[in-house]
Amino acid sequence: MPALSVRHLLGIKYLNEQDIQLIFETADQFKEVINRSIKKVPSLRDITIANIFFENSTRTKLSFELAEKRLSADVLNFSASQSSVKKGETLIDTVNNILSMKVDMVVMRHPNPGAGIFLSKHVKASIINAGDGAHEHPTQALLDSYSIREKLGDVAGKKVIIVGDILHSRVALSNIFALKLQGAKVKVCGPKTLIPKHIESLGVEVEPDLRKALAWCDVANMLRVQNERMEMSYFPTTREYTQQYGINKEILESLDKEIVIMHPGPINRGVEITSDVADSSQSIILHQVENGVAIRMAVIYLLASQLN
Ligand code: CP
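Above: the input record for the complex with phosphoric acid mono(formamide)ester. Below: its predicted structure, written as tokens.
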């Protein structure tokens, strides 16, 4: 059976192109399963997975839980805000206590960049990074590329613009790694203060003008402004941000082609994207969420097959 080149999913940075194709081919099979009337397979009946979330989440948390249940794994859900972390318990103690209950795999979201990498060096379980600070969000990037492949047939050669708060975005970094691995052309667009210095070293171009960026691209991935990660003002006002970097129906209709609109969620309606665009036929936002379950089933299944 083909296998991933990694034992953990800590970031797209650690995957190769074959890993991504294997995840997509496996997700194709699981997508077929979850569209059947019986949406469950017995593949992981012997596996226990802990979802430990130190940060809020709607899509990722529910999607992982559903993926695990569709694979018949036993599932433990842990939310730091209701746990002994509040009494000062460390990350390693927390996870080792969970693992002593014979847990095989840990899905973790944490505010600190590198938290998953740190954990993978200290505990005996397969770790999946469900978002670590402003570092990586690998399953989001996989489901994003998978959704582009589904909509446009392929990712290779496609022109993708990532718009908004690139500086604080784990979604942007993981998407850049994933898209470049698959041969897409990638540009980023946003206020200069929210574009990391030296981003060109990742093989992407900076296009400061949103209208030019949209005229160039096949796909626009609109990111949320991450106010919770900003300790200072990066642009004068939200209104000015929206005027320069927000997408609306009038801008879309001024283009001489139909581009695909994506957003990882949660959406700030009326800030980076208006409702008429988010809910339009060009938007694949809810398809991204749907595909997240099949992608996470694939990742969990492939990593579980390497457990000993
Ligand atoms: N896209 C994403 O990570 O959403 P959540 O924060 O709701 O999980």
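Notes for the reader.
The chain has two domains: 12-136+289-304, 138-285.
Residues 285-304 form the longest helix (20 residues).
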